[in-house]
Design goal:
This protein is of the alpha/beta class. The chain has 13 helices and 17 strands. Helix 6 runs parallel beside helix 7. The radius of gyration is 21 Å and the shape is globular.
Length: 417
Amino acid sequence: MGKTFFFENINILMGSKNEVIKDNLLIIEGKIKAFGNEAKKEALKKNIAISKSGNKVLAPMLVDTHSFLKDPLTGFDDNLENLKLRAKKAGFGAIALLPDSNNWRDKPEKIPFQKNNDFDLNIYFWGSFSLEDEGIYLSPHDELLKSGSIGLATKNFIDSTIIFKGLSLDAIKSKPIIFSLRKKRSEEKGIVNKDLKSLQSGFYIIENNNELFEVKNILEISNLFPEKNILIKNIADSNSLKEIQKQTIPISTTISWWSLIADTNNLELDDLGWKVDPPLGSKENREFLIKGLENDLIQAIAINSMALNEEDSFVPINDRSAGISSFELVLPLLWEEFVNKRAWPISKLWKYLSFNPSNLLGIMEEKLSLGSKRWLIFDPDAKWLNNQINLGYDSPSNFPMKNRLIKGKVIEVGLDF
């Protein structure tokens, strides 16, 4: 029988209102069959051997609030089929894709039809707030949302006229609107934010970070439309969090997982993770971002995946597109940073990687239940070499920390692949 396990005293996180407990677990053909004494009785009856529990954790699947996919159907760098395969193996149960693509998702006919169900990874699509996100003409909001868009996205809001017009319409109601921050001026060659280490490393640096200015702009809009569900995407500057902290009207924010892991002080000089969006900052800035997460100024950790093929990955760093793509590294590296180094309870990490992201997207929270295939087993002690052979040759090439020994791995998931 495929995906059949019996564990005694394995760590189990049932859902958002629970802490981790130790209990028996029986899984048969990918479905959770029983817990506790019932699991033991059924396993003995069916002669199912005991699997080693160790420090393994059974938990609900992870949720990504935003990533990119240029060509979902025929993409060579990445496509829906490849993305779903990689993400499922890494423990993800839902991913929301931004409208930025070769065929900008600003009309109903550009939203690929997806039949979501409980036995597969569910894909959601953000629609574009304006046509081509040029901030000139509104997209058909009502039709986009009726066609299945999870919400609307924009990064063109400096001229607020079109934003005010769109937010004044009734179509949006409770659906989320996500504002993307541009960290630098388009003419700037900078790759990382300016600090002592980035200057010493010799990279082009970003002299003028626009994030604080844009955050202030979004907060003004939010104050004028307090009933709208506005999200700020990819907070990466400590000054932005300080500004958000002053607000009397709360606003939701996301952060790229890589902004919590990497800074200008802790990467090898040849790592592909140097050129990302949002750009990396100092160690001190990263620590402030982590404090903001711990204090709930940030609501969700997003994967923010942008896939590149091998040819694009070898383009010189100044000319290469910004971004990394590796769902497989997310849970191991965040576990090391937060559970191991900072003694977070496991439930707290899942709050930002699964439960809060579901709430921001307005979808059902992931949870464990009898008969469900929506589970993952993470082994914090598993070690594996981070290279193309282990990740699979169908995966993108722009993953960070290549050829590094990684501790922690999602070793099993209920979903089929």
